[in-house]
Amino acid sequence: MVQVRYVAIGDSFTEGVGDEVEGVPRGWADLVAQGWADSRGEQVAYANLAIRGKLVQPIVVEQLERALALGPTHLSFNGGGNDMLRPRTPISRIADAFSHVRRRCQEEGVTLILLSGANPSAQLPLPALIQRRGDALSAAVEERIAGDDDIVTAFNWPDTELSDPSYWSADRLHMNTRGHHRVAARVLDALAEDVPEDWWSLSEPDRTVRLDRSRYFREHLGPWLKRRLTGTSSGDGREPKYAEWLPVDPR
User: Sorted alphabetically, which InterPro entries does this protein's record hold (predicted)?
Assistant: First the structure.
């Protein structure tokens, strides 16, 4: 059996922000790598080039070819969440990135794992706008990949359970440990691998601090707006957490 060589590209969703272990983001992609090794009972090679705050075009330009150069068997891609929050960005331009990643994976013979992010709209300002643009992006991407049975899909946007606050961190934009486990369960299920039963709805206590309106604005929404106005990103100067292959052994 050929060893699984899995590389992930994307933004904070794929980097694992919100599911920190000893201060380091873990997240669904790390969990998938471990769950994959456990399910198969053999070592999986894993790399993660995702960096928080990235728009979809920089993900494609800065991460895709670097990931393909590693020689993966599988590549997971998600992007567009940060673009979607910019109302002037055309949905078609975001969907173009998905088409490009799809084409490059086909050319290189790499199995594409395509994800959509979870839906945070109920907890954020302008929920109707975010819902509408998220729905439009989901429809556009699904139209682009229609009929392609070689793509592994793990779409989280339609999962209403994931919109519950118990799956989200204090910033209301990134999932917490429970949320990342549910996404990882969906990916492993789409890969036809064994899924730890409790990952779908992790039973550990919800330790997320619920912030009142003023504190939420001061600690999270205000800094995000400042970055928008100054043209900076939370990922500026950051390097991928796993730029080369990391061996993941079954437990």
Answer: GDSL_Rv0518-like, SGNH_hydro, SGNH_hydro_sf
Residue partners of 136: CB distance under 8 A and separation at least 6:
91
Q: Where do the H-state alpha helices sit in the chain? A: 12-15, 27-40, 56-59, 65-68, 81-84, 91-108, 127-145, 177-190, 213-216, 222-230
* Burial category of 28 from C-beta neighbours within 10 Å (exposed 0-12, middle 13-18, buried 19 and up): buried
What three-state secondary structure class fits 114? strand
Residue 92 CA to chain centroid, in angstroms? Answer: 20
What is the set of domains in the chain, with CATH numbers? 5-248 (3.40.50.1110)
Smallest CA-to-CA distance from 57 within 121, 105, 9, 108 is with 9
Report how far residue 206's alpha carbon sits from residue 10's, in angstroms, rounded to the nearest whole number. Answer: 26
CA torsion sign for 2, 37, 30, 175 is positive
CB 39 within 8 A of CB 109: no
The tokens describing 66, both together, are: 């670097």
Confidence of residue 213 (pLDDT cuts 50, 70, 90): low
Pick the closest to residue 200 from 182, 180, 175, 178 (CA basis).
182
Pairing label, strands 20-21, 111-116 = unpaired
Dist. CA 51–CA 64, nearest whole Å: 12
Full-model pTM? 0.89
Cα end-to-end span (Å), the chain: 19
**171 neighbors 17 (Cβ within 8 angstroms):** no
